[in-house]
Design brief:
Length: 252
């Protein structure tokens, strides 16, 4: 794909902007800013990855993964404003899940120990964990507000904070897993995933591409479950005092 072809693809964004202008959606500014930011960020990352790939230095790989986890945690933390140490809780969960998932892949020799494999796959895992974290926080906030009376009644009857918030926590964790489970059910029927599509376009056999995609999908599922569970159990105690009094979701 040439540079000219890349510039031509911007026309798709202009179509969306034209529709927004015609329907008075007022999305033109956001679309323009998003397009410019995406182009700058991806070009910059492209040059950084070229340097990291050629350097073959483990420190550079770890540094890049650290930056990715930091950005992901910062983005998800906006969904939990008011919760003590929310950024560090999310940072720990995403970092831990990424380390465990990638560590198992490397130990089991499912991927090659080289930056061309570690960074892209880790990036997909981190991005997926970020989405799950944001969704979990949204769901927990809604349930903390809608189930407040139920939690207070349980506490008044002698339940601990863990017992009183169990249904809220379980339902929030399950809700955080819904997109991942739905994608498992429809992959290949509704859409061809990005990694598989990229491999096929690059000339890889569709059967080989499927094997790689299954690796990614299954690792995503494990990472999403671990992220949702860990973060759920790290967040709910912040809604209670040490004396098991319900504080509710913090006001923004």
């Amino acid at each position: 794909m040439s540079v000219t072809d890349t510039f031509i693809t911007v026309g798709f964004v202009f179509i969306a902007m034209a529709i927004s202008l015609r329907l008075h959606l007022q999305l033109e500014r956001d679309l323009l800013i998003g397009t410019v930011r995406a182009a700058i960020q991806l070009v910059a990352v492209g040059y950084v990855l070229s340097f990291v790939f050629s350097a073959h230095n483990a420190l550079f790989i770890l540094l890049m993964l650290l930056v990715m986890v930091l950005v992901a945690a910062r983005n998800s933390a906006t969904r939990g404003k008011g919760i003590p140490y929310i950024f560090w809780r999310i940072f720990f969960v995403i970092g831990f899940v990424t380390a465990v998932t990638m560590g198992l892949m490397l130990v089991l020799h499912l991927v090659k120990p080289q930056p061309q494999s570690i960074i892209p796959i880790s990036g997909m895992i981190i991005g997926n964990a970020m989405v799950v974290s944001s969704l979990l926080l949204n769901q927990m906030k809604q349930r903390a507000e809608s189930m407040q009376q139920e939690i207070l009644v349980a506490l008044s009857l002698g339940a601990t904070s863990h017992q009183a918030s169990e249904r809220m926590n379980v339902e929030s964790i399950k809700a955080g897993m819904i997109p991942t489970i739905d994608s498992l059910k429809t992959v290949g029927l509704v859409q061809l995933p990005g990694m598989m599509t990229g491999l096929i376009i690059g000339g890889t056999s569709p059967v080989t591409a499927v094997r790689y995609q299954l690796l990614i999908m299954f690792s995503f599922t494990a990472a999403a479950a671990l992220t949702s569970i860990l973060l759920g159990f790290l967040i709910y105690p912040a809604l209670f005092t040490r004396a098991h009094q319900f504080l509710g979701w913090p006001k923004e």
